[in-house]
């Protein structure tokens, strides 16, 4: 479906108009179209074909023509024209948190700032400070936004990379003779952000595979194209590298291109110590090839166990593989439920019944309803009365939908004094209490760490949600002292969440590993606001694997009885 892609163009056109200080009605009209497209549950192409498209509120004849132009040609002429009317660098500025189109327009018109570079040069200048709506505070926010943007610049969220890889994989699988398409690189290692997607393919003729790859729909630019490898750019900034390898060398190539570079460097040194040579074609003694067909065989010939890709970061996995002490990592099959979900009761889009059915379909035994608490007004947090009404509906769903248990929970705000957003007698009646910070992100380290620790000292709190609060590429973590939080979690028996949302991944792999070493349990929660997001549990499972976690460290691997006794 091209719905989101097209929505993005209309959104971008609205941004351009707003930067140009155009009439607000025009700006809003474009935004309305973008939203309508985002919210469509069916393919826009079908609606264009049947003519129903103009029946959608906000979409008129002109818009419909633009959409069908895009479907036919891959671009919208008027949008391409609009882009030429403003300096190129301005659209990039919009990716920075704290900068909207109005501000960007102001910076451009008043100070002739046309790029990130120019903005950085003049950020603290007096002229900039004097602009309407500016001020020390706002400048600081923009500066933090720039820092976050630059640290994540050019890297994709893993959710983006996964769907991109799926799309390319589907194209490559259509190529005659192709028997295998595999992800390599950071995507196969499930790193939290992905620089470029690396794919390997085998079977069929290399020329045909390369040709199919470079001419796929969605390719904006072919960055390189050779006889066995090619790189393309999709959309604005998504790069995919493809290598065609022979079936006999699949294992060696997969190992080489999975990396990480640090892991590979150690392996090659290890090979040399044994008078062997390791490269992307195989493991050799002199001219004699010892192995290359499968990864397992190559690792075995190096005298070590096969290393799960998530561990290949040179963080101790090589020693463990040599000594036979690699952990038994948690797997998707171990997971019996999702421990962080929102519904229509707060700011989610799915009903409790829909959540229950989706959870059962995933093969879960339980799922938690953890809607927002009363202080989080912008997310329609539940008053005590509504929380009680919700409990009745959960009872009803549990009676009607067999084979899945909906747990009563909350994602309660940790208030500024460290107390939890409901009184004890309310918390006590819930099956699971997640406590999270949603305010006061800028507090000092002592203050915010203290808040989290007081929440953990409340005996009803079972899990701390998204413990560091970072949003990848958008917001830095709070200044929380994770060592102290983990120590307190171990002492109070509070679990820490691995929030599975691709923009959060919070805790991350490194923190999760440290927490487990300290005896803290981890809880996987997708934080889904719609059942269509529940797949993200795989991001959590693979993050846990990157953190060397075994099933024993993870709450979601417990049966419901064991979960209850762990939480009590
Ligand atoms: P990324 O794309 O920044 O998220 O990270 P990777 O790990 O996917 O890095 P990438 O795409 O540059 O290369 C993919 C893999 O290929 C990498 O993990 C290991 C291997 N590789 C690439 N260049 C080198 C190199 O110069 N030396 C070694 N040993 N391996 C390399
Ligand atoms: Ca890569
Ligand atoms: Ca690459
Ligand atoms: Zn939250």
Question: Would you kindly provide a written description of the structure presented here, covering whatever features stand out?
Answer:
- The chain is of the alpha/beta class.
- It has four domains: 2-151, DNA polymerase beta, N-terminal domain-like (DNA polymerase, domain 1, Orthogonal Bundle); 156-244, 2-Layer Sandwich (Beta Polymerase, domain 2), CATH 3.30.460.10; 250-323, DNA polymerase, thumb domain (Beta Polymerase, domain 3); 332-567, Alpha-Beta Barrel (TIM Barrel), CATH 3.20.20.
- It contains 25 helices and 17 strands.
- Helix 20 links the parallel strand 13 and strand 14 (432-436).
- The chain starts with a helix and ends with a helix.
- The mean pLDDT is 94.
- It binds 2'-deoxyguanosine-5'-triphosphate, calcium ion (2 copies) and zinc ion.
CATH class of the largest domain: Alpha Beta
Helicity, as a percent range: 40-55%
Q: Could you please say which CATH topology of the largest domain applies here?
A: TIM Barrel
| First-last Cα distance | 46 Å
Helices, strands, pairings?
Layout: H1 3-19, H2 24-39, H3 44-50, H4 61-73, H5 77-84, H6 89-93, H7 101-111, H8 116-122, H9 126-129, H10 136-152, E1 156-157, H11 158-173, E2 178-184, H12 185-188, E3 193-194, E4 197-203, H13 206-214, E5 219-225, E6 229-234, E7 238-244, H14 250-258, H15 261-273, E8 277-279, E9 282-285, E10 288-291, H16 295-301, H17 317-323, E11 337-338, H18 352-361, E12 366-369, H19 384-400, E13 405-413, H20 424-427, E14 432-436, H21 445-457, E15 463-464, H22 482-492, E16 495-499, H23 509-517, E17 522-525, H24 537-546, H25 560-567
Parallel strand pairs: 4-7, 11-12, 12-13, 13-14, 14-15, 15-16, 16-17
Antiparallel strand pairs: 1-3, 2-4, 5-6, 6-7, 8-9, 9-10
Bound molecules: 2'-deoxyguanosine-5'-triphosphate (DGT), calcium ion (CA) (2 copies) and zinc ion (ZN).
